[in-house]
Design goal:
By secondary structure, this protein is of the alpha/beta class. Helix content is 31%, strand content 26%. The strands form three sheets. It has a six-stranded mixed β-sheet with strand order 5-6-7-3-8-9, with helices on both faces. Strands 2-1-4 form a three-stranded antiparallel β-sheet, with helices on one face. The protein is globular and about 50 Å long. It comes from Tunturiibacter psychrotolerans. InterPro entries: AAA+_ATPase, ABC_transporter-like_ATP-bd, ABC_transporter-like_CS, Metal_Ion_Import_ABC, P-loop_NTPase. Belongs to the ABC transporter superfamily. This is ATP-binding cassette domain-containing protein. One of its GO terms (molecular function) is ATP hydrolysis activity.
Length: 263
């Protein structure tokens, strides 16, 4: 099921988040429609991953009267239900249980937001059919019977994207997805993200690698020191001048096949 550009996916107003004694997100105001393609860009430690954890309710905003958090139009969620609908792909490797699971079963776990197919979980025929469709969508059918722990990092990332897609409401949240991938796997991942975007899947991509941003992403959010410092069209923000300011170093920029590359 794909979202449309008219459905709200995320609404944050005046969100502040503390981790321990430190406030790490400051007055975050953000609205994202389902089906949008957006990249969140910033240096390490700028608050990008904390923002994702706030969306997935792993971190909670400080309680203040003006603070609002709505996900898929709702302010309150059963966390198990929300996890099934949020298609999150983290930079971390799959957990120990998932590594012992076949690719096909790992994708099916996305219906339950579980680490493996535990005996108490009931898998329906409809789930299996949809999982096959998703495996084909992410080009993972040829290694679907392989254990996740025996796969290359690139194959694992495809399976994790498939897992995120089966239960999600047409939105993928990707946190530094090219980490630990070699050059060939990075190229495959970027091609996959392009196809998913073209098919109507919404994408929220968190990265500090400019080359990860596919041409289909048209909105850029820039973060630094726990604040959103810019939110606008890619053409305006992905410039050498704006990137140099964001990363506080001189950045050179070039473009090839719709992708921008920085050094």
């Amino acid at each position: 099921m794909h979202g449309t550009a008219t459905e709200p996916f995320l609404y944050l107003a005046h969100v502040n988040v503390a981790r321990g004694e430190n406030v790490v997100l400051h007055d975050i105001n953000l609205s994202v429609n389902a089906g949008e393609h957006i990249a969140i860009l910033g240096p390490n430690g700028c608050g990008k991953s904390t923002l994702i954890k706030t969306i997935t309710c792993e971190c909670y905003p400080m309680v203040q009267p003006e603070t609002k958090v709505r996900i898929f139009g709702r302010e309150r969620w059963d966390l198990t239900e929300l996890k099934k609908r949020l298609g999150v792909v983290s930079a971390e490797l799959p957990g120990k249980q998932t590594l012992q699971t076949t690719g096909r079963d790992a994708v099916i776990t996305g219906f339950f937001s579980s680490s493996t197919l535990w005996p108490n979980l009931v898998v329906t025929d409809a789930m299996r059919v949809h999982a096959e469709e998703v495996l084909e969508q992410v080009d993972a059918l040829e290694f679907a019977e392989k254990k996740v722990g025996e796969m290359s990092a690139g194959q694992q990332r495809r399976i994790m994207i498939g897992r995120a897609l089966v239960g999600s409401a047409g939105m993928l949240l990707l946190d530094e997805p090219s980490n630990a991938l070699d050059l060939a796997a990075q190229a495959e991942l970027r091609g996959l993200l392009r196809r998913l975007a073209q098919q109507g899947t919404g994408i929220m991509l968190i990265t500090h690698h400019i080359a990860d941003i596919p041409p289909e992403i048209d909105r850029i959010l820039m973060m630094r020191d726990g604040r959103i410092i810019a939110d606008g069209a890619k053409e305006e923000l992905l410039t050498a001048e704006r990137l140099s300011e964001l990363f506080r170093t001189e950045v050179q920029l070039t473009e090839k096949d719709g992708f921008r590359h920085a050094w």
